[in-house]
Amino acid sequence: MTSRERVHLALQCREPDRVPYCELAVDRALARKLMGWGKPSGQAANLEKNTYTVEEAKAIAEKLHMDNICYVLRAPVFANKEPGIDGRLFYGEGQLQTADDLTKMKLPDPADDSLYADAEEFLKGKGAYSTWFVTRMGIFATMLSMGLQQFSVALFDDRPLIEEIFDRYCNWMVEVAGRVCQLGFDVFVTTDDVAFKNAPFFSPDIFRELVLPRYQRVAEQISIPWIFHSDGNIHPFLDDLLTLPIDGLHPMEDGAMDIQQVKQQYGKRACLLGNVNLNLLGLGEPEAVDVTVKKLIREIGPGGGYIVTSGNSLAGYLEPANVMAMSRAVQKYGAYPLT
Predict the structure, then answer these.
(1) What pLDDT is stored for residue 40 in this prediction?
(2) Domains in the chain, please, with CATH?
(3) Which residues on adjacent β-strands are paired with residue 91?
């Protein structure tokens, strides 16, 4: 069975030949350690667009026995960016504070063929991997562009500003989604955090009023399997989210979501992806990683509808030995029928 077939069956909540192993991203700092690559020249990594060639992505996937490769294209976020370790950029203060700031919000033309040229080139070399297009729907970009504090105040004092920014992102995403789903990607992934570890960023009522109708507009253009990503406790939103044609939920963050409970309640409606704890992968030992992955496979894997992933993505601070232990554990314990 190819990786593409394996992931496809898992997203249908069926059993493939083994539990797939996938990731949404691998930080270049970690990839350098895993692959023995030298440091890249030039500026810090671009947060909005894929930074790996398809050959690089396939090399990483082969090293880790991953079943997917990812191409990333996101609309720009209008916030100050601060460099961290290894040149990675982090979002700081938002730049869209008032209606006067909307002149700063310039998005790439979604009708411009050149916007998709790199994606088309990436797909030419995809091989038998499940190829994922990774983007954002718009609510998280809206929050980052305004800043969390300003966004929270505006929910009560200036809802039209939020709606204008969010609509611009969603209008862009409607055009992009319709286009990229015809290019040959296997999976459409949206990465929009909507929750802290203990609770969502806003109430279920606001989610239904502000977010869900705009997501429904974008969903109409998604014609391939769709994985929804959000860190944190999204349990209060799950029933509403699953009125959308979502095929997978990622990453069921450990400590925020009880993945066993979600499997019991929603395991027939959506594939679950996750949730090997990043603290374990960064600070633990390979033996503990092996035990954790085995437990997840035994508890979440039966009946299908499960893909092993880290609890977010493969960050630069993770221990390579632990990442390799996670990969090996999937190969060791993941074959169906599970025993």
Answers:
(1) 59
(2) 3-333 (3.20.20.210)
(3) 81
